[in-house]
From TrEMBL, chains A, B, C:
<dbReference type="InterPro" id="IPR029062">
    <property type="entry name" value="Class_I_gatase-like"/>
</dbReference>
<dbReference type="InterPro" id="IPR013738">
    <property type="entry name" value="Beta_galactosidase_Trimer"/>
</dbReference>
<dbReference type="InterPro" id="IPR013529">
    <property type="entry name" value="Glyco_hydro_42_N"/>
</dbReference>
<dbReference type="Pfam" id="PF08532">
    <property type="entry name" value="Glyco_hydro_42M"/>
</dbReference>
<feature type="domain" description="Beta-galactosidase C-terminal">
    <location>
        <begin position="605"/>
        <end position="659"/>
    </location>
</feature>
<keyword id="KW-0862">Zinc</keyword>
<dbReference type="InterPro" id="IPR017853">
    <property type="entry name" value="GH"/>
</dbReference>
<feature type="active site" description="Proton donor">
    <location>
        <position position="144"/>
    </location>
</feature>
<feature type="binding site">
    <location>
        <position position="154"/>
    </location>
    <ligand>
        <name>Zn(2+)</name>
    </ligand>
</feature>
<dbReference type="GO" id="GO:0006012">
    <property type="term" value="P:galactose metabolic process"/>
</dbReference>
<dbReference type="InterPro" id="IPR003476">
    <property type="entry name" value="Glyco_hydro_42"/>
</dbReference>
<feature type="active site" description="Nucleophile">
    <location>
        <position position="302"/>
    </location>
</feature>
<feature type="domain" description="Beta-galactosidase trimerisation">
    <location>
        <begin position="392"/>
        <end position="596"/>
    </location>
</feature>
<dbReference type="GO" id="GO:0009341">
    <property type="term" value="C:beta-galactosidase complex"/>
</dbReference>
<keyword id="KW-0479">Metal-binding</keyword>
<dbReference type="InterPro" id="IPR013780">
    <property type="entry name" value="Glyco_hydro_b"/>
</dbReference>
<feature type="binding site">
    <location>
        <position position="105"/>
    </location>
    <ligand>
        <name>substrate</name>
    </ligand>
</feature>
Amino acid sequence: MKIPYGGDYNPEQWPKEVWDDDHRLFDEAHIDTLTVGVFTWGLTQPGPDVYDFSVLDAIIERATASGRRICLATGTGAHPAWMARAYPSVTRTDFEGRKHRFGQRHNSCPSSPDFRRFSAEVAGRIAHRYAGHPAIVAWHVGNEYGGACYCDLCAAGFRDWLRSRYGSLSALNDAWYTTFWSHTFTGWDEIEPPSALTEHWRGPDHTAFQGITLDYLRFMSDAMLTNFRDEKAAIRRSDPDTPVTTNFMGLYRPIDYHRWAADLDLVSWDNYPPDDRSAARMALAHDLMRGLKGGQPFWLMEQTPSVTACRDVNPLKRPGVMRLWSWQAVAHGADAVLFFQMRAGRGASEKYHGAVIGHAGRSDTRVFREVAALGAELAVLGPMTLGARTPARVALLFDWDSWWALEISDGPSRLVRYLDVVIAYHRALWQLGADLDVIPVTAPLDGYDVVVAPALHMVKNGLADRLAAVASGGGTVVATFLSGRVDENDNAFLSDVPGPLAALLGVRVDEQDAREESYVNPVTMNGTTFESRLLFELVLPRGAEVVGTYGADFYAGTAAVTRNTYGDGHAWYVGAGLSPEGVTHVIREVLARHGLLGPCADLPDVETAVRVTPDGERLLFVLNHGTSPVDLPDACAGTDLLSGHLVRVLGPNGVALYRDPARTPSTGGGTPARR
Amino acid sequence: MKIPYGGDYNPEQWPKEVWDDDHRLFDEAHIDTLTVGVFTWGLTQPGPDVYDFSVLDAIIERATASGRRICLATGTGAHPAWMARAYPSVTRTDFEGRKHRFGQRHNSCPSSPDFRRFSAEVAGRIAHRYAGHPAIVAWHVGNEYGGACYCDLCAAGFRDWLRSRYGSLSALNDAWYTTFWSHTFTGWDEIEPPSALTEHWRGPDHTAFQGITLDYLRFMSDAMLTNFRDEKAAIRRSDPDTPVTTNFMGLYRPIDYHRWAADLDLVSWDNYPPDDRSAARMALAHDLMRGLKGGQPFWLMEQTPSVTACRDVNPLKRPGVMRLWSWQAVAHGADAVLFFQMRAGRGASEKYHGAVIGHAGRSDTRVFREVAALGAELAVLGPMTLGARTPARVALLFDWDSWWALEISDGPSRLVRYLDVVIAYHRALWQLGADLDVIPVTAPLDGYDVVVAPALHMVKNGLADRLAAVASGGGTVVATFLSGRVDENDNAFLSDVPGPLAALLGVRVDEQDAREESYVNPVTMNGTTFESRLLFELVLPRGAEVVGTYGADFYAGTAAVTRNTYGDGHAWYVGAGLSPEGVTHVIREVLARHGLLGPCADLPDVETAVRVTPDGERLLFVLNHGTSPVDLPDACAGTDLLSGHLVRVLGPNGVALYRDPARTPSTGGGTPARR
Amino acid sequence: MKIPYGGDYNPEQWPKEVWDDDHRLFDEAHIDTLTVGVFTWGLTQPGPDVYDFSVLDAIIERATASGRRICLATGTGAHPAWMARAYPSVTRTDFEGRKHRFGQRHNSCPSSPDFRRFSAEVAGRIAHRYAGHPAIVAWHVGNEYGGACYCDLCAAGFRDWLRSRYGSLSALNDAWYTTFWSHTFTGWDEIEPPSALTEHWRGPDHTAFQGITLDYLRFMSDAMLTNFRDEKAAIRRSDPDTPVTTNFMGLYRPIDYHRWAADLDLVSWDNYPPDDRSAARMALAHDLMRGLKGGQPFWLMEQTPSVTACRDVNPLKRPGVMRLWSWQAVAHGADAVLFFQMRAGRGASEKYHGAVIGHAGRSDTRVFREVAALGAELAVLGPMTLGARTPARVALLFDWDSWWALEISDGPSRLVRYLDVVIAYHRALWQLGADLDVIPVTAPLDGYDVVVAPALHMVKNGLADRLAAVASGGGTVVATFLSGRVDENDNAFLSDVPGPLAALLGVRVDEQDAREESYVNPVTMNGTTFESRLLFELVLPRGAEVVGTYGADFYAGTAAVTRNTYGDGHAWYVGAGLSPEGVTHVIREVLARHGLLGPCADLPDVETAVRVTPDGERLLFVLNHGTSPVDLPDACAGTDLLSGHLVRVLGPNGVALYRDPARTPSTGGGTPARR
């Protein structure tokens, strides 16, 4: 047993003589796991009643012959051309109301009975054929579920979903606040999907009725989940045990992965960060993925070994970066390291996408050499990290409903984006070295010393009470502007802002001022002044202590940041859009109180992460995302398990892995608090 | 009698127990007038043959019980969901050719016979039910008419409108210049609405045929006017007297308010300026609204007490700004000061829009306190300003046809926007303190000393002669680049530019040069040099005196600004896109000649405005839009009617109101001219 | 015989009394040639079975009476309104899938049988009526062919075109690489035009399947060529000899003019450069047009005498610029100088477009005076330049397939635009004074010393061998980044980059790095450092000498520019996006080697161009595009044929034309090489 290493492999695109070259090179690179069949629907089902598994058979046979394991896809990420022609219901209707015809991928209407029937059928047949094959280690359903459809079938599905959610039109009218703008519905069939033809203008985020749009987002996420369930059920008829997954996309807005997580046996995801300054962002995404199933390790299903192709500009991953990011994934809970893709396609839109093997089939390329080196390293490591868990005492709340609600809101500011706020708070936690879980708002909070809830716009289902319990028990809660504003239907609370959180936070927000990006209001905390931007809430302390005050405008001198003592703990409220430095200032105080500052908290480019193995061994990962060598503090120096060397200085893109039972769970400054 | 104070009130969105809270707070804030029922169509007509006035009855009863007056809406600003479902003709087809389904508001096709029948019927029933109710002081038809429809019904309506306008296809072909690009129409049914599917590209302003697009703009404005007339006629069957209005939107391009004005008994409008540097722009809009019905006072139907919600960024109105802007409205002719809205909605797209009463129902908010304070002030003022008129000796011409023609023109510059030019000239007049009327090109001009006609692209119906009469009688006319270019069909005059204005202005324009925003050509006038941008006409004096010359390019040294002596008066021509300072330089000379410089002409942030009450009393408003206190000149100091104090210094956002029969109509510099 | 002078003339837009004015002014301006009837379809065919040539008759009669020659158009650039109404197949369906209705121009579906029948019929009737008329010197078919259609008829046409290209679905599936994303086609009718509804997102350049989109571009170009052929064939039935042309648009992407060239008897084009810094770009376009038919002179069919109208900003052509650019056209091979348009239209979208005669009909305008002066100059020149050829020893390859393939590619960079690369290399050649041909990749290369092939993304049909032959014979080949990447189906070569060019260039490209515009990597060549941007290939020399090296990033010190000795010649490879200065540095070395630096190579604003007349006389054009007078080198001074004066200093916008058999073909620095 070791970390599976390999990735997407599409030999159906090549003559068979190439396959042997592939496997020779795979051996050279210690590649042991192949994801097969992701877009083979047209190949395996060339007509409505015709199935042909000969190519899949050959691929699997050849791979097995070389001892490789297989993650086998159902191939339904794109429907075949004949299906779009003969069964037009399978194509989508877009936000603009345009019925699409055959093309692209991820192109199926989730509500199409034809698509549902055909996709379940092909998944079932594949499972029936290959179930029990010893090489198969996982099932891969569909591919990167996402997008949306607005066809009449989806409209009908939406109405059914609403009937089930609300029971009556009267309840729906209340939830959607339809007395506004004469929107009272008197029949279910009057309800339209919210689109450019109905409630929207300027695109998907601008809607006249947030309640309708919010429910459509939920419905569409559920409709695609139904597609996943269709296929998984078909697989389970032949194979009751092998884990079934689909590849998620990390910080992806259209699908509420928390609503999906229970249906997956194994979370896997594709890591394509926007740029090479994304170290913290990737850590957040890893933690979010790990948090989907209560901390269970996940698979890194895809990453590019070198470049992407779909961006306007596709820079190279610099030498060492692919290795660094692969180890980062492991540090955050990945139990597999896989690439897209094994060999570069010749044609179409991914022909310039990075691949382990290029068009010329060489092994003397920089990329292949780096892939092979990492393969060797993983082989040496063996099973050590498999199944290890992250011992987090900090939780970051992540909530698709708040994400959606905040970003489809009219007012106060389109410039405040949910992810920006989450990323800002996560980055501070990450930089200061706190091991943390990213969890849904429904998760138990009692295991955490610190709970950070950025831009928690929607508060529902007793969350306020659970947060209060964290503080009253001695922990610390951190909340920000635009929190506690709406209930689960996106209706404003009829009480002082921040609604159900007001008592915990000890403040009342009287108004909020929104300004253009270029405007700065300085906020002073403990004698230091930080910039704040975009949003400025006018916070009236109602029990809380003022920690930071505004420096400008008519509310100069009033509270921008507060801390309320609540029970044995603290509840912070950050009413201003603080700069990263300002956020870090707040978070540093919070972590220090609980002794949770990491050993490299003062080395901004150095990431540390801990995993505890199933037999209780503590592993410390140290990663240098910077461009200069770093002198490590004693707590982070030692004998690196990867190199076997004693490491005191970590070079650029450097990685070190230590096993040290002596290291204490928290080695940071500050005095450990309760628990 | 006093200025009505209050605004949009939607208690149908709330449980009845809230209504008593509302009225208690209304009393506290001196709110005496409520606009009711603006979006209640779905409520009052829950089905094609069902009417239910119980909620409206209760609202009116409760309001009346507290002695409040009511502006009662017909509620047709959004049609009900059942109507869109059962009578699809009521929804619009957009510029892209997409048939819309139910959603948003202002969503009805103006040509739909179903919409016309239903809207007239509901308006008639409401009028029949409530006519004669003593609380009702005005009828509010529809809401913010606007937008456009491109459906087949509108196409048919357009053809009828064209038949009526042109009589024959031959006349239409001439007017539209259809020999160009093989466009000769040989049958009425060949004519299509100009849209993205026919004559347009890159959006509504880019058309292959200006004549077609111009006529569609006129038709669409007329079609919506027909909708207004339908409802007004239905109201008049029950109530012959109470004024009927609809809320206009100030500087709103799609509707030619001059074509509508005669049909309204009372002009009202909604003031949502783009930002807090809009003092001059709001003054222009007020004056335009007042000018719709020959100077008759208007109602400020809506303004936000604090924030908007629909903008990307929604900043607060700073303390004092709401009061300042309310008094500015009164200074320019408002006989009512109303807000949107009385209580903040819980859900949908306006839940974060400012309201007198917030979600928590408090009176101890900054906003409520400011509203209540203004209410008290208005109560003290009483009837003093009601019915007062503005004694303007300056007219600014405003012409929707020129606006449309200029902005749909191909060439010379898309960067020259009609409103920018109008605003630039108005701002100079405003800053220099001239009381002015903003009037249509059809209005009599003989009452004015000065007529300013910015970007008068289209000249029609003897306007050139009427302008010439102003000058020959001793007055001053100011015209600018891109004037006198086209006739009423947007066909170029077959004579020297500026066409019918050439004799009056004493110039011939040989060519015009257009340049990017970043290019500056300096223009020197009377020894001072000003920047000019965007458009540079090559002006050949043909009798006119050269006042300003270009400083750069091959036309350096040639005329940019001229003044022609015409009869006893002057006619200025400004051929260059002068900077604000340059425009002010020209306008200052013009006003000085007629002794029309205001008393605060040298205080750029201080606005003055005069109203003369029905009994001849002269009221002077002084408003400080700046952020610093200002020492007022003697002519603007005295006992403020609002505070009762002697005012010599006016603070930021300060307002003073004086009654002083001794003040002369013009107290500015310069020697008074004839009249 | 002399250069035809005149242009588009639309007297059908005017009452006949104006026509005499026109001809009087034409005489004054030495205008001898009129393009007539370009948009007269609605006039000549007012109904499906009705033809009326009375107006055309009168126009031609009047023109002939004044001795003018006529370029007679078929008028099919826009279909009549009745046709769109009665035969809806003639209108286009756009990329978004929207069926258009009547409007604009260039509006016909190329696959519509109705359009094809009607257009051929009207062309045939016009030819039948006017063939043999002595005034007619050319036939002008359609107008500025372009755009695209995506209707069902075009879909059917596309499938036919594909059947003919590929023979079988199996070959098509191979070519399009359809195993990718489950795209295998099992029936021809499954194939859809690539559009926003099928393979595209974010617009026409973003496609999931490059092969499909590339073929649709080829098909659409061919479909419109069929339209041209329809009309030409109809003309040829009555007139076997008079040249038939259509007006091209220079650097116009949607139509592959190389695929069209053989069908035209005479190339003509419309020159509307984007701005007044386009001297080099216009030279490129002229050379491209001249290269369409092997160097045969072309007609400048349209240029504006002063301003355009369709741009956002339409600046004037400064004094002298129209003359300068007209002579530039002649210098590059124009045998006609024509304007759009003779008299300004009154209405619609070109009423502000420049014209020889303005709305007021004056001759005392700057524009008319300049037009008349040039007319006089051309009259004096007489036949001297007619039929002259450019003696180029340098070839620049221009390839629509590479243009399309590069710009629809996903990866490596959307910022690298084909035309930008071509323009950069052409500009260097132009500035250094090399007479050059712009030729298709199918053209013979053996007449050239230097072949420059910028961004030759696609290499096909033995081109690599022909380029190698140039080098092996002693010549120089210059290639750049992103060359030799794909075959004719846009499938990557299964060999080292740059594919078939690798042996010639002596390099292997291991990877390419793409970066944002703002990033600069310095490249040092021969001790001088130049900026490079956007794309950076990691070039491994495999025989080539390293000429330039990167200065930054992990590939600092590695090869950016190389030169391979190949046979007796050189092959350069430029792997980085060099700045203009860097490109010029490379090109200067190349030209110097062959003694091809022009006489004004060190005067950046001065253009030189040589034409050799049919009787072997050598004419040298010298043009000063700068704003300062220039001292000419001896080789460029002499007696100017236009002015008759000895010219040693050339003023801004100045033109000189010399006849001097003594001048050697190459007067630049460097030692002449072989040939």
